[in-house]
Write a structure and sequence with these properties.
Layout: H1 2-32, H2 38-47, H3 60-72, H4 76-101, H5 104-115, H6 118-123, H7 130-148, H8 154-170, H9 177-187, H10 198-206, H11 212-220, H12 224-231, H13 242-261, H14 263-276, H15 285-305, H16 318-331, H17 347-370, H18 387-398, E1 408-412, H19 415-424, E2 431-434, H20 443-455, E3 460-465, H21 472-475, E4 478-491, E5 494-506
Parallel strand pairs: 1-2, 1-3
Antiparallel strand pairs: 3-5, 4-5
Helix pairs in contact: 1-4, 1-5, 2-3, 2-19, 3-4, 4-5, 4-7, 5-16, 7-8, 8-10, 9-15, 13-14, 14-15, 14-16, 15-16, 18-19
């Protein structure tokens, strides 16, 4: 009876804490929103043109943005609120998973470690593919464990299927979950009989059916997502000694993970994960579960980091198991040869360092602005600053035309500039993009293939970065071109200049082979 009361107390405490954090994050988003990040504006633009496949990712993020845009009327607060809700509430699912694996106190520790991880603060501020992916992965871990622990109901299989199917549509990383699940079942004697259960196979691998729409889309678009994804696994040498470059990439990845998790949590997590690999066949079932879904793929990621550069967020879903493993070790539910048990008393210090980093993430930008130092190197929001000034300058020129004869907007350069203008300009108009680099580098090039013909004959207002003169290869595509403005703005903490040109009568869309 006392245990049940204690469990309820921890859960009540968790709900209150998570609710308070969510309220804080919503208020913070309302008070200190500046501009969307480049990826946010890019995915928001996807959401305005719904499809069942996109250049670099499955379609769920576009569908999510379409819903958020519909609810929030194109506001930045709606985007921030969606990120805050997804990122914060994922901790409640993490609590349920940890409590099912161990006990309520371990789950409480896991929530505290999650809140003390800067990654959760970032996840709850920027609405990218990782926010829905983390919820799907955590829910799948919880549902799959209920099956392993023989506490499943028919609804458990349904929720596992939905978590996996939705996760596949969020990010390609979710595709490894069923494979890891089979590895776990093969290594755990207690769970091995589940391999003979057809409904489980149907749920795990039937979830891949959700990928049929983007597969059909890719078949119609030269398998562009596959080509883009393959580039992430290319080894890129900068021209220096290969061994030095590979070591640099490896150390860089490890360094970023200290910031993602906080130094104390990252150190204990990697020690428990790598040191626990030999225990994959002998540890208790909950311990083995966390090692299989955390330590094993993390070891693969570290080996991959010795070969190539990795993005800091690639290992994000594997840290969900890792955080519970760290919480279980601090709680005493898991033993290890290293770190020594005496280090468990450092739990308050681990939390303090993590919360200090999280506090810096939230406080640094408002404090920098209050001190007149916005955009300083220590300001974490410096890469978001200045786009509103660029949009204002472009709008001053754009306002000279009436709605009937208004030229279409075209940015020649990186996709971030295009999507930021589309989001920031009054009325959020359609903005077209052409990247001067050869090949297809963004979804905008995909849209150009189908829409460019409809723009022939129209006038264009063209923004060209860092130049007052439009290059000949672009100018010759119009009947005439004239410069209408030069814009200088402070963008991403740097002074940047743009030429704004009026191209009359588009004759043909731009080609990579134009001289």
């Amino acid at each position: 009876m006392e245990t049940e009361a204690s469990d309820q107390n921890y859960f009540r405490r968790t709900v209150l804490l998570v609710g308070a954090v969510l309220l804080f994050r919503l208020v913070y988003a309302a008070l200190f929103a500046t501009n969307p990040a480049g990826d946010e504006a890019y995915y928001w633009d996807w959401g305005r043109q719904l499809d069942y496949g996109y250049y670099s990712k499955p379609p769920f993020i576009a569908w999510l943005y379409a819903f958020v845009d519909w609810i929030g009327g194109g506001s930045l607060f709606a985007i921030r609120a969606a990120a805050a809700t997804l990122g914060t509430l994922s901790l409640l699912i993490l609590y349920r998973l940890a409590a099912a694996l161990f006990d309520a106190r371990t789950a409480w520790y896991a929530v505290l470690l999650g809140l003390a991880a800067p990654a959760n603060a970032v996840l709850s501020f920027f609405l990218t593919i990782d926010a829905p992916l983390v919820i799907c992965w955590t829910a799948a871990l919880w549902m799959f464990w209920r099956i392993v622990d023989e506490k499943e109901t028919p609804a458990t299989y349904l929720f596992l299927f939905l978590a996996l199917a939705t996760g596949h549509l969020c990010k390609q990383m979710m595709m490894v979950f069923p494979l890891i699940a089979v590895i776990f079942l093969g290594c755990a004697a207690k769970a091995r009989p589940l391999l003979k259960r057809p409904p489980l196979w149907l749920v795990l691998f039937g979830s891949y059916l959700s990928l049929l729409p983007p597969l059909v889309w890719n078949a119609r678009h030269d398998w562009i997502t596959f080509k883009h994804t393959s580039h992430h696994f290319e080894v890129k040498n900068q021209g220096g000694p290969v061994l030095i470059e590979r070591l640099g990439d490896f150390l860089s990845f490890l360094g970023t993970q200290l910031g993602v998790l906080s130094p104390g949590t990252a150190f204990v997590l990697f020690a428990l994960a790598l040191g626990g690999l030999p225990l994959l066949r002998s540890a208790s079932c909950p311990h083995r579960y966390l090692l299989t879904f955390g330590a094993l793929p993390l070891a693969v990621m570290l080996l991959l980091a010795l070969r190539q550069e990795l993005q800091p967020n690639w290992a994000a879903v594997f840290y969900l198991s890792g955080i519970i493993l760290v919480a279980a070790w601090y709680r005493g539910s898991v033993t290890a040869g290293f770190p020594p048990n005496s280090w468990r008393r450092l739990f308050p210090l681990t939390l303090a360092v993590g919360f200090l980093l999280v506090g810096y993430f939230y406080a640094a930008s408002p404090l920098s602005a209050a001190l007149g130092k916005a955009g300083h190197a220590a300001d974490p929001s410096r890469r978001l600053l200045g786009y509103e000034d660029l949009a204002t300058a472009v709008q001053e020129v754009r306002a000279k035309w009436s709605e009937d004869d208004e030229p279409f907007l075209l940015v020649i350069g990186h996709r971030d500039l295009t999507s930021q203008l589309a989001f920031g300009l009054p009325g959020q108009p359609r903005v077209y993009n052409f990247d001067a680099r050869p090949g297809i580098d963004s979804q905008y090039e995909m849209w150009n293939r189908s829409e460019a013909r409809a723009l022939i004959g129209r006038n264009a207002l063209i923004l060209y970065p860092e130049s007052e003169r439009l290059p000949k290869r672009f100018a010759q595509c119009f009947t005439s071109v004239e410069q209408v403005a030069t814009i200088t703005v402070r963008l991403q903490a740097q002074n940047k200049r743009y030429g704004l040109h009026l191209g009359r009568g588009l004759q043909e869309w731009f080609r990579d082979d134009q001289g």
